[in-house]
Amino acid sequence: MAAAAEAPDSNPLSVLGDALEAAAQSIGDARADASESAKAAAQKVKSGVSTGAYHTAYGLSFGVVFAAVFLKELLPEDNALRRGFEDGAEAAIDAVASRRVVREPEPEEPEDAEEAPAPKPKARKVVIKPRKPAA
């Protein structure tokens, strides 16, 4: 009776081998799926962080510049604080423009030449605007 319950090709070792093969295949498939999912998640996180950094920088820049311009416009024209805002803004624009200028390379001096003091940097031209008479 026990012989009738067993199938003729049900070898316990082959069943175990088939189960191990199926498990290994499932693990390999899961690893590949997890790797693809991790790459997709990393791209989404990178995109989210980049977008967040952009919006943070934009908001900070907008807030600082808007507040300064708003305050400047509220002040009377002959106010020292307003003139300071205006002159500071112009100086910042000049500083950025001077950094963008491509400087010509200086000619190399021979190594045996005596050390001469370094040339002084060019002085920045300061323009003082005349005050408008108070009304």
Describe what this molecule looks like in 3D.
The chain has helices spanning 2-5, 12-74, 80-100. The chain has 135 residues and is mainly alpha-helical. The protein has a domain at 14-100. α2 packs across α3. The chain starts with a helix and ends in a 35-residue tail after the last helix. The mean pLDDT is 77. Residues 96-135 are annotated as: Disordered. Residues 106-115 have a biased composition (Acidic residues).
What distinguishing features does this structure have?
3 helices; mainly alpha; 135 residues; 0% strand
- Helix/strand class: mainly alpha
Largest sheet: none
Please count the helical segments: 3
User: How many runs of DSSP E, i.e. beta strands?
Assistant: 0
Distance between the termini: 121 Å
Q: Please bin the fraction of helical residues.
A: 55-70%
Strand proportion: under 5%
Instruction: Give the overall average pLDDT.
Output: 77
What is the string of helix and strand elements?
Answer: HHH
Question: What's a quick, concise take on this entry?
Answer:
It contains 3 helices and no strands. It is mainly alpha-helical and 135 residues long.
